[in-house]
Design a protein that fits this description.
With about 350 residues, this protein is α/β, with parallel strands linked by helices. The protein contains 12 helices and 11 strands. Helix 1 runs antiparallel to helix 3.
Length: about 350
C-alpha cells in the first residue's frame, strides 16, 4: 500500500517534469504545485547553464522529458511488478551520483526509494540543484517519503550499502572507503555503433543524435563506429550536417579545436567536417569532438570486438541492436552496466 502511494507520487512528479521539459505554461493546481513554485522551477532550469556550462536549457529539458515519459503509473507498476518488495526494515543506501548529464542519477534515486529503502544521495558538484528541487515537490506529493530521502554535501555518513558512479580513477576511492559494504560500482563506459552499409540517410541522421545528444558526454553516447569495408564516410557526414550548430557551444568548440590540434600535431589521419572529427583507430573511447571508427570484414569481427570490450560498452546501436536514435532512451528496466539494480536492492 505504501509503495502504491510512492508510485503515485512519482507519476505526479513525472507529469510535472513533462510540463517543465515541454515548456508548458502552468496548468493549475492539478499539476500539484502553485504557479509561483512552477515559475521557480523554470528559473532553476534556466540557471543550470550558469552553474554548469554543459547544461543548456535545451539539454535540461530533454532530460526532464525523457524521465517524465518513464514516470507513468503504467510504466512504474509494470516495472515494479517484476520484483518482490519486502516489508523488512529499510536499508540506508548511499548513492554517489555523476554529473555528466542532467539528472543522470535519477534512476538510482527512484530505484532505491521504490525498493523500500532510504536514498542517501551525494550529488556531483556539476549537478546539485535539480534533483533536490524536484525531491522537495515529490515529498509534498507524498510526505512519508521524507523518511526515505536524504541529500548530503559532505561525507556520506553511515550506510548499509552503496551505489557509486564515477571515473575509473574514482574506483580506488570507492573501494577504499566502501568496498566492505554491499555495493554497485560503475566505471567509465561508452557506446558503440555497428553499420551494415544498408542504412538510410535517416538512420545515419539518427546515429548523429546518438553521438551528439548531451554533447556526447554520456555513457550512452556513441564514441566508436564499426563500418563495413569500403563504406563511404561522406554518406555519414552528409546525414549529420543538421548537427553542425553544436560547434557554436563554446565548451564543445574548445574540445573540438584542442583535439584537432593535438592529433594533427601527432600526424594522425583525421576526417573533418568542421564540427566533428573522425579518427581511424580500434580504440573504443574517443575524446569529445571526435568519433573513432574502423572497418570490419565480417560479422565475426564485429562480435569479437564487442566481446573484447563488453566491460566498457554501455549500448550497441545498429540494425540488430538498439535502434538508431534510441541510445539515450532507456526504459526503466534498461539498467546501467546490465546490473539489475532493483533486484540487488530488494535482496539487500
Amino acid at each position: 500500500m505504501k509503495n502504491d502511494k510512492n508510485i503515485k507520487a512519482f507519476s505526479q512528479l513525472g507529469k510535472l517534469m513533462l510540463d517543465l521539459g515541454n515548456s508548458e505554461n502552468w496548468k493549475g493546481y492539478s499539476i500539484g504545485i502553485t504557479k509561483t513554485e512552477y515559475e521557480q522551477l523554470e528559473q532553476l532550469i534556466n540557471k543550470q547553464f550558469v552553474l554548469n556550462g554543459w547544461f543548456t536549457k535545451e539539454n535540461v529539458k530533454k532530460s526532464l522529458v525523457a524521465l517524465g515519459e518513464l514516470l507513468t503509473l503504467d510504466n512504474l507498476n509494470k516495472w515494479i511488478s517484476s520484483y518482490t518488495i519486502s516489508g523488512k526494515t529499510p536499508k540506508k543506501v548511499g548513492v554517489i551520483m555523476a554529473g555528466n548529464i542532467p539528472l543522470v542519477g535519477f534512476h538510482d534515486f527512484l530505484s532505491v526509494i521504490l525498493s523500500g529503502n532510504k536514498a542517501v544521495c551525494k550529488l556531483s558538484s556539476d549537478d546539485n540543484t535539480l534533483l533536490p528541487a524536484l525531491a522537495t515537490h515529490l515529498i509534498n506529493f507524498e510526505p512519508s517519503l521524507k523518511e526515505q530521502i536524504e541529500f548530503t554535501a559532505g561525507k556520506i555518513g553511515e550506510i548499509d550499502a552503496i551505489i557509486a558512479t564515477g571515473s575509473d580513477n574514482s574506483m580506488k576511492y570507492f573501494e577504499q572507503y566502501f568496498g566492505h559494504l554491499p555495493h554497485i560500482f560503475r566505471k567509465n563506459r561508452t557506446s558503440l555503433a555497428v553499420l551494415s552499409g544498408k542504412e538510410s540517410k535517416k538512420d545515419l541522421s539518427l546515429l548523429g543524435k546518438d553521438i551528439f545528444q548531451y554533447f556526447g558526454l554520456g555513457c550512452r553516447n556513441v564514441s566508436h563506429i564499426l563500418l563495413p569495408e569500403k563504406f563511404n564516410t561522406d554518406l555519414f557526414f552528409e546525414a549529420i550536417v543538421d548537427y553542425h550548430e553544436i560547434v557554436n557551444h563554446h565548451k564543445y568548440a574548445n574540445n573540438y579545436d584542442y583535439n584537432k590540434a593535438v592529433y594533427l600535431m601527432n600526424k594522425s589521419e583525421l576526417l573533418d567536417n568542421n564540427f566533428v572529427l573522425l579518427r581511424k583507430t580500434e580504440e573504443l573511447f574517443s575524446p569529445l569532438g571526435m568519433v573513432n571508427y574502423h572497418f570490419y570484414e565480417n560479422k565475426k569481427e564485429v562480435e569479437d570486438y564487442i566481446t573484447l570490450h563488453k566491460e566498457k560498452i554501455q549500448v550497441v546501436v545498429g540494425e540488430e541492436y538498439t535502434p538508431f536514435g534510441d541510445a539515450q532512451n532507456p526504459t526503466l528496466s534498461d539498467y546501467a552496466d546490465s546490473i539489475d539494480t532493483m533486484d540487488w536492492l530488494t535482496n539487500l
